[in-house]
TrEMBL record:
InterPro entries reported in the protein's UniProt record: Lysozyme-like_dom_sf
Species in which this protein is naturally found: Yoonia tamlensis
Taxonomic superkingdom: Bacteria
SUPFAM superfamilies documented for this protein: Lysozyme-like
Entry protein name: Muramidase (Phage lambda lysozyme)
């Protein structure tokens, strides 16, 4: 009996010694002070933004059913290669910009947004962009040169490691759009692994202002979407940078 009481006291002492260490342990965050706020644990698949629906009421539309917006596509950290030189990437961005935001460019806000931000998007931080989105439900929120819609913006911000305090500058918008260029298969296209037509259709599956090989937007008629540039123009411009 006395021996059993001694063992019990020893066990209690061990628990008392260990408990402060356990109670102070805290999972580290993979987000830091990003757009999702101060994270208290590791990102899980269920914590990722919802996939983009094609009826997002914007010139930009995602392919919810396909692989372009899988929950964990390959991340593209700052400085990662797209398999193309800077001039090629800039050329493709310009094609998309002409289709999605031909007038306001990096400061474009979807025309259906009744309550617009109180300053140009390029003068806002990413956190301010998300605050505007949260404060104005029930209207379209596509924004910037590449007409990012909220779910897509949240995803590419998380993938690049951009922070809540970062400005939504032209350089930042380009960096975020490059994630989508990787999704569309730009590295594979430049390596000759996919055809020009497939690459173009991939781009058109992301940006509704671009035509598919049918000549029409993949999302034609959905929330007013339509191709805003011709197939002939799109083909001619992509042919300028096609490998070989």
């Amino acid at each position: 009996m006395l021996r059993g009481m001694g063992m019990l006291r020893l066990l209690i002492c061990c628990v008392i010694l260990i408990w402060p260490v356990v109670s102070r342990a805290e999972a580290v965050s993979l987000v830091g002070d990003g757009v999702f706020g101060p994270a208290r644990g590791l990102i899980t698949r269920t914590a990722m933004p919802a996939q983009v629906a094609p009826n997002g009421a914007s010139l930009f539309a995602g392919n919810a059913a396909g692989s372009l917006f899988a929950p964990f596509p390959t991340a593209l950290p700052q400085g990662a290669s797209l398999g193309a030189d800077a001039d090629v990437v800039a050329h493709i961005r310009a094609i998309i910009g002409r289709a999605e935001s031909p007038f306001a460019g990096y400061d474009a806000v979807q025309h259906g947004a009744v309550i617009r931000p109180d300053k140009p998007p390029t003068q806002m931080t990413i956190g301010e962009i998300f605050a505007w989105i949260a404060a104005t439900p029930g209207q379209p929120h596509a924004i910037g040169r590449y007409q990012f819609i909220p779910d897509t913006l949240a995803r590419v911000v998380a993938q690049t490691g951009a922070r809540h305090s970062d400005r939504f500058s032209p350089a930042m918008q380009d960096r975020l759009a490059d994630v989508l260029l990787a999704d569309a298969g730009l590295p594979a296209f430049m390596a000759g692994q996919i055809s020009q037509q497939r690459f173009m259709n991939n781009l058109a599956g992301i940006w509704a202002g671009l035509p598919t090989s049918s000549g029409r937007s993949k999302y034609h008629g959905i929330a007013g979407n339509q191709a805003t540039v011709s197939l002939a123009y799109f083909q001619a411009e992509i042919a300028k940078i096609a490998p070989g």
